[in-house]
């Protein structure tokens, strides 16, 4: 066999081997792409499940606070009806305790939504928190009195909330008329 024939044969084999390598690489790339797409879909599903679960946990906590409100006649108005904190009495303590629980739930909800970015309810939750703070002198006063207790909740409130003119504070209890 002549040197030219051997050279042509080697060139042909090299071309065939190169073509086979390119086709094999394309097949591997397609398979890897399918595996990557499946992995991405799995992560998206996992994130959606985590978001739904986290949101459900927050809403369950809110339901528990609302049940406390339902058990006490007229308490809801302190949180959604702009009713001021009572000056004295057992109801004052009840309202303050429920307000603290409600702040805990709202702050926890904000924090949960920050940690689960795929949650589609982060915006509505922030709106709910702003509405509740705006319609509850008790909650507003607690936040201004103790801003370090609920930092996540404060993050969804308007800038300057703590520095607003004549900020509402939790008023000190007044002595009762019988001197106690």
Straight-line N-to-C gap? 120 Å
Alpha-carbon Rg, integer: 32 Å
Strand content: under 5%
Shape descriptor: rod-shaped
Summed over residues and divided by their number, the pLDDT gives a mean of 80
What is the element string, with H for helices and E for strands?
HHHHHH
What structural class results from the helix and strand content?
Answer: mainly alpha
Low-confidence stretches: none
Tally of DSSP helical segments: 6
Extended strand count: 0
Question: Biggest β-sheet: count, sense, barrel?
Answer: none
Q: What share of residues is helical? A: 55-70%
Features:
69% helix; 0% strand; rod-shaped; 6 helices; mainly alpha; 180 residues
Care to describe what's here?
The chain has 180 residues and is an all-alpha fold. The protein is 69% helix and 0% strand. The N and C termini lie far apart (120 Å).
